[in-house]
Amino acid sequence: MQLGFVGLGKMGGNMVHRIHRDSDHQVIAFDFSDDAVKAAEGHGATGAGSLEELVSKLEAPRTVWVMVPAGDPTEQTVNKLGELLDAGDTIVDGGNTNWHDDVRRAGELDAKGIHYIDVGTSGGVWGLEVGYCMMVGGHDESVQRLAPILDTLAPPDGWRQFGDAGAGHFVKMVHNGVEYGIMQAYAEGFDLMHESRFPVDLKEVAGLWNRGSVVRSWLCELAERAFDEEGNDLEGIRGHVSDSGEGRWTIIDAIDHDVPVPVITAALYARFYSRGNGDYTNRVLAALRNQFGGHAVERTSGGG
Fold first, then answer.
1. pLDDT at 303 over 70
2. Which one of the listed residues 172, 203, 224, 246 is annotated catalytic?
3. What is the pLDDT of residue 296?
4. 282: CB partners within 8 A, 6+ apart
5. 229 an active-site residue?
6. Could you say which of 59, 179, 204, 230 is catalytic?
């Protein structure tokens, strides 16, 4: 199968590598980075210098996989491809798009006869070796046409179609919300052990928990790896935790459906606090304790 591929970053580049390493499919690859295109060519892909050139090198019916950052970069790329492609062609969004945008795009492209598939992709930098878990939304016909590529990228039995456009990224959104909660629980548990009176080797704990424990997981394997590389105290890492949006979207959807998600919500708020976003909150709390109970406050050098 021939596939156009736009976006050759850490995940996209590895996905193109896996396709050529593990199959006879042919990728036409484009990225704004010439070095990224050259790297893809080194793995067997055919490079393109623009979206126009990429489309011109594909045989109808064309399929183009978009793997660029969510938001404007994806929106602009999909819109441009919508102008370049013809009826019967397919656009695949494998990034972390909000599923509401998928539904809108699918409707706009359907009016032109262009198919749209959303693929929520999990696996990160490890996907090259172990494969990518892929959650798919789109029309049955276009998904079946893409199936040989999905079979190559995923581990055995590692992809599912969950409905029309938007369904894949919806499931991936919830997946990432769950991930927030699991990661927060691990982090809090390891923090407690780190502060205990016992000389607990956290790398050994993580390794042990992956041998028969009910909390064993790939994330726990990564915790073992992190403690091995960074040490028990993680002194080289600053406690600043970003979020890429899926946790927020999960909570918004939960509110819309009256579904309580307290663990996911608390995990997202903990990330906010990690960035110092709760500093003013804590100053108000300290001021209130001082006002009603005369409790001492720690003052800054410029405080009154």
1. no
2. 172
3. 87
4. none
5. no
6. 179
